[in-house]
Amino acid sequence: MEWVRILASRLLGIFRKRNLETDLDAELRAHMDALTEENIRRGMNEQEARHAARREFGGLEQTKESYREQRGLPFFETLAQDLRYALRMLVKNPGFTAVTVLTLALGIGANTGLFSLVNSVLLGNLPVRNPEELVVIKYTDSRSQDTEEDFSYPMYQAMRDKNTVFANVLTRSGVDFNASYGGQSERAVGEMVSGNYFETLGVQPLLGRLIGPEDDRTPGAHPVAVLSYGYWQRRFGSDPTIVGRAIILNNNPIRVIGITPPRFYGTEMARNPDIRVPMMMATVFRRLLGTMLYEVRSADPLAFAGACFLLGVVAGVAAYLPAQRATQVDPVVALRYE
User: What is the pTM of this model?
Assistant: First the structure.
C-alpha cells in the first residue's frame, strides 16, 4: 500500500517540521559546497565559483518550497498558518473580535431557530400515531370556487357515520375561554373536539383520562375538559390534584378529567390549545347571547339591560336600512330590469 506509506510519511513530517528544515538546510549547503569546490578546481576564484554554483543549482527558496510540498500536507499547514494569523489579529483588536463573535452567535442562533421551526412544521411529523396516514378533508364551493375546510356538524356526522374510505373521521373547532380558578382569571386558547379525537390520533393521557365518545353524545351533558401539558405546568404548577377538580370557563363550571402528554400539541403547529372540551359543549360555549353578553351576569341588572338595549338597536338598524333602500327604488325602473 504505497499511498498509505506516503500519507504516513507526510503526517509524520508535520510533527517533525523543525528537524526536517534543519536537515534540508544542511543538505542544500552540502550540495552548494560541492558545486563550489568543483568550480574552484576548474580555475575560478571562490566568489566566482559560488555564484556559478548558485546559477547551476537554481533558486534555493524554490527548491525548499518544492521539497516542503512533497514532505507534508501543504493545505493543512497553510490553514494552520492562516488560523494562527487570524487569532493574533483578533487578540490585537478586542472590539472588532467582540462584534464579530456576537454577529456570528446571532446569525447561528437565528438560523438554528428557523430550521427548528421549519423542521417541526414542514419536515417533522405530528406527535400522533401514524401521522403519515392523516388527511384533511376539503371541498370546493360551487359558487365562489373557493376551497373550504369548515363543515357544519350535521355534515361531519354524515361523513363519520357513512364513511367507507377512512379508518375514522374527527373534527375540531377553536374557541376562546375566560378561565378562572382560585380567584384568578385569564384568557385561554381553547378547542372543542369530537369524542373520537384522541382515540383517532392515538394519544394517551399523562394523567387521568381523555375525552371519549361517551362525552360527546348529548349536547351540554358532559361539562369536562382536558388540559394541555404546557398549560397545566404554567397555570397550575404541575399540580396532579387538579384532575377531578372544577375550573370556571366562561362562567360555566367544568371538571378537569385529564392532562395530555408533553409532546402533543394537536393537529396544527401554529395553534396549541390550552384547554379542550367535547364538541357537544358548543351549545354552552357558542350560544349567541352568551357570546355577545360575555362576562355579563343576570345578577347585574343594569349591565344586562344595557346589553339587551344595545342588541335591540343593532337589530333595528339592520332591519331599517334595507327597508329604507327599498322605498327609494323607482318601481318602473325596477320592472324594466326584470
Answer: 0.53
